[in-house]
Amino acid sequence: MKHRLLTLGLAAVLAASTMAAIAATPLPKVRVLATGGTIAGAQASATDYGYKSGAYDVNTLLKAVPNLDKLAVITGEQVANIGSQDMNDEIWLKLAKRTNEVLKSPDVDAVLITHGTDTLEETSYFLTLVVKSDKPVVMVGSMRPATAISADGPGNIYNGVAIAVDPRARGKGALVCLNDEFHYARNVTKTDTTSVQTFKSLLRGAAGQAHTGKIDWWEPMDRKVGNATEFSVEGLTKLPRVDIIYAHANMSPDLIEAAVKNGAQGLVVAGVGDGNMTTPALDALVKAAKAGVVVVRSTRLPMGITLRNNEINDDKMGFVASGELTPPKSRVLLQLALTKTKDVAKIQKMFEIY
């Protein structure tokens, strides 16, 4: 009996020691960079469907998330305060440079970025290619404004921070977290105008699940991100102009010719089927390519791969095939590619490895 009591006493001491050690372990430090969007939006009234994006600042957003301080030491700053439909190259560069600067600090373990959902997939892919740190970068948004009944923003922020402090998130590029799932920036797209289930990785599936801070990883990433890419925003003050042209029945070459005339260095065609278009439009693109404009064929379809030399002879016409990348993602990659080269063969290779 005496031996059993001693054993129980020792176990209690060890348990108390373990709990004390856990309590003494410093929490990771997460910097939140806010850019506005629906997640910071406010309705005019409880019954008004419309709302104003970016009505609340970063500190107000963070205070609305229960138990966030149990996950990490959180600090925040406002980089921009816009609806993401107004996102532009200047803010991209500002955000990327600030993210790189923050992640260099030994006092920051990860970055969380709040962003509107309309262009979240593009911003996240841009950051995946230019952020030069293995520390986690997680982007969150919401489909309902902060004042809505059952607002989804606080839950997305909580799960986003939980992912950001997960050691397995290191070196993955930017991750996008909404509605209890998270995705690699390269793969994710917005699929529904209003549903909270809008973000999907249609070809490859989600990277994992985030449920009340519990993280499960599913899909690995096999493309180069972050430090492994050749891209950098250091010294960049602007990005090359790249326009997206949407293909349709009876498509005219006029918009292609106008884009080239107005200074587009690259064109992405959201083609029909496997990146196809009308003969007049195709002829205009061949002319543009011969004049030094880099042409990328993508597809307007929600799923599928735009194959090289399928239906259209890319080798002969001097085009790039986008592969898995959607038109918006193709535009992001082409903008960065044009900061390095206008060689079509080299750019095609970039579309295969990023």
Measured between the Cα atoms of the first and last residue, the distance is 66 Å
Radius of gyration: 23 Å
How many domains? The number is 2
Shape: globular
CATH class of the largest domain equals Alpha Beta
The number of E-state strands comes to: 16
Tell me about the largest β-sheet: 8 strands, mixed
Which structural class should the secondary elements be placed in?
alpha/beta
Give average pLDDT, whole number: 93
State the strand order across the main sheet. Answer: 4-1-5-6-7-8-11-12
SSE string: HEEEHEHEHEHEEEEEEEHEHEHEHH
| CATH topology title of the largest domain | Rossmann fold
The multimeric state of the shown protein is single chain
- Number of helical segments? 10
- Give the uncertain stretches in residue-range form: 10-22
Helix content: 25-40%
Portion in strands: 15-25%
Q: Which key terms come to mind for this protein?
A:
16 strands; Rossmann fold; 2 domains; four-stranded parallel beta sheet; eight-stranded mixed beta sheet; 10 helices; alpha/beta
Molecular structure report:
The structure is a single chain. The chain has 354 residues and is α/β, with parallel strands linked by helices. It has two domains: 27-228, 3-Layer(aba) Sandwich (Rossmann fold), CATH 3.40.50; 242-353, Rossmann fold (3-Layer(aba) Sandwich), CATH 3.40.50. The protein has ten helices and 16 strands. The chain has helices spanning 2-24, 58-63, 89-103, 120-130, 153-164, 254-261, 279-290, 314-317, 327-337, 344-353, and strands at 29-36, 42-43, 51-52, 73-82, 110-114, 137-140, 174-178, 181-184, 189-190, 199-200, 208-211, 214-217, 242-246, 266-271, 294-299, 320-321. The strands form four sheets. It has an eight-stranded mixed sheet with strand order 4-1-5-6-7-8-11-12, with helices on both faces. Strands 13-14-15-16 form a four-stranded parallel sheet, sandwiched between helices. A two-stranded antiparallel ribbon has the order 2-3. Helix 4 (120-130) packs parallel to helix 9 and helix 6 packs parallel to helix 7. It is globular and about 60 Å long. It starts with a helix and ends with a helix. Mean pLDDT is 93; it is low at 10-22.
